[in-house]
Amino acid sequence: MENTRVLHTLKEYFGFDSFRPLQKKVIDSIFEGKDNLVIMPTGGGKSICYQLPAILLPEITLVISPLIALMKDQVDGLTANGVAAAFLNSSQTENQQQEIFKKIDSKTLKLLYVAPESLQFVDRFLSDGKISLIAVDEAHCISSWGHDFRPAYTQLGYLKNRFPNTPMIALTATADKATREDICKQLNITSAEKHTASFDRKNLSLDVRPGIKRFEQITNFIKTRSNESGIIYCLSRKNTEEISEKLRRQGFEAEAYHAGLSPEKRIEIQDNFINDNSKIICATIAFGMGIDKSNIRWVIHYNMPKNLEGYYQEIGRAGRDGLPSETILFHSYADVVQLQKFASNSGNQEVQLAKLDRMKQYSEALSCRRKILLSYFGELKKENCGNCDICKNPPQFFDGTIIAQKALSCIFRLKESEPITLVIDVLRGSQNEAVFSKNYQKIKTFGIGKDTSWHHWQQYIIQLINLGYLEIAFHRGNNLQLTSLAKTVLFEGGKVQLAKVPDRKKFKLAEENDISESTSNNSLFEKLRQLRLKIAREEEIPAYLIFNDATLKQMEKSRPVTDDEFLQINGVGRQKMQDYGYEFIKEIIAFNKEKKTTKKRKQANTYKTTLALLGKDLSLEEIARKRELALTTIYSHLAKLYAEDEDVEPLKYISKSDFKAIKKAKEELGNPEGLKPYFQHFEEAMDYGTIRLALAVLEKEQAKD
Ligand code: ADP
Ligand code: ZN
After folding, report:
1. Which of 118, 294, 618, 665 sits 20 to 30 Å CA-CA off 90?
2. Shortest-distance Cα residue to atom 9 of ligand 1
3. Prediction pTM value
4. Domain 3-196 is classified in which CATH homologous superfamily?
């Protein structure tokens, strides 16, 4: 297939100017008739890999997709782009299905989405020659290795035998090697070309914070992001309900989502979120599977996830449109303890515990988090990312030997039989029931750490655990225990480097200063978003199917006002230009006008300020200095004020001889337009300000005559 034709189709139907890495390679391979396995992270742009060939290939493309909601979304999206597509699944009536069979027969469809369970229905309509391409979306569902096994997928192996000459493309976001191989084997495409995109999602910032005052941290974060959609992941159903309730009480639009709700309720909540009707979802991990919302701007983990796969998948739901998006993970020891219990009681506890350990290491890291994350998925990066909390605020190390000695000897005196909370109480000399009941006020280390705050002690002890000086005895009341390394500090003069505890106030300030222009309600972006929402409601489709946020951002930046300019925007294809171009352009023009009026108003103010200063009898030079404006600007203010009959006396500021000379020049030059002819006439010896002012006076004189 010719390059220009492929690129033209990309713009015409999807509105994009260029391909993302790998998309083009996959598409070329399909046109060569090969089978392909595509591994791309969520949001990587998998759909185009088969949707674009489907448009150009002569016969229909069959897409196998596991979730009804996902199918509907994709078909809505294609329809909005002017591509003939339909889906077939068990939720439809017989009549609806008959309609689709008719379309298949008359060859009016380019893509047909089918659930694996419904494949037998289409089988009789299609033969090898009548089908151009088979795409298997979410292909990891075929593998029992994967995390999302679906029995119906296992029958897909027959497709390759049934349509041996039709190229097949399998797509997944699961990176795990065993699963990849299993996919190809089970689909009978063992010689498929394999394409693996980088799993690095650069637009997602990574931030891990101590899980202290989580709710306060969350509200501080979201209050400056009121127009943005986000998800808060929690460990328990109860948590999701409590947090959403608390948020609602503080005036945020938040809803809880978990497996305990009825299916209808869950669909309703999902739809509200997808359509931008509700902004915040507090969910257990059940939420997000198969929803395809591209403008989720942030994801917060209220609790620590079980493993890095889950964590990466969940934060991956943010920023699918490629715009900067934020993720925060709260890290707490209580969570680790809880998860450790779950893991110990699970089937393959060794694997689970090992995975949890990697999760823990990630949260406690003192070097670039993205490097750690990507290395877990087999991608090694040399450079630090610059977009994680560690890169942005590198830890500052100091000699923490005395702090370590205090903590370790306190634990030693407590006979390694107390958990972190009580150890800190004793260090700080707290006078409370827990301390007194065990007579700890009598031990030698009681109160030796008075001048260090609770929070700091907690962070230092966590560091000591991470550095291997301490262990938590999870099966014995979470008591802190000394390791052999601790003995080197206590008895052999070993030194300890600790990292300074970051200042929590800083987070708060950074967030409060963080309201970008685009999130303010008066920005063009916000206006365009409102318009998009209005149209989405009218057409009953998700807002992001009209244009995604990245496209709106571009409109805000380039402010297109003609059809041609509008079509230049990345994300605007022919169909959407026709359907929505008029309304969006209208909005942009209205915005431009409003901007102009504000500008005028601002200018009017600037004249008034000059007028006031003239009233105080300041010289024009003084006014210029005071206002930090050019002297010629003040001259022109004066001219304008005079023309508008304000109470000013321009002749006070021009010498009689200059005025006469300019009057003469006006006659000699035949009253020319603009100031330049005068300037040249005086061979640049008369400044623009004086000329302008004199002309203003002369014009008024003439008008009187
Ligand atoms: P995936 O299925 O891999 O999760 P999608 O196919 O849904 O990803 O694409 C994710 C987002 O990226 C969508 O908003 C899509 O419109 C956008 N996108 C895909 N390809 C391009 C491209 N070449 N240029 C710009 N945006 C793209
Ligand atoms: Zn980093």
Report:
1. 294
2. 45
3. 0.69
4. P-loop containing nucleotide triphosphate hydrolases (3.40.50.300)
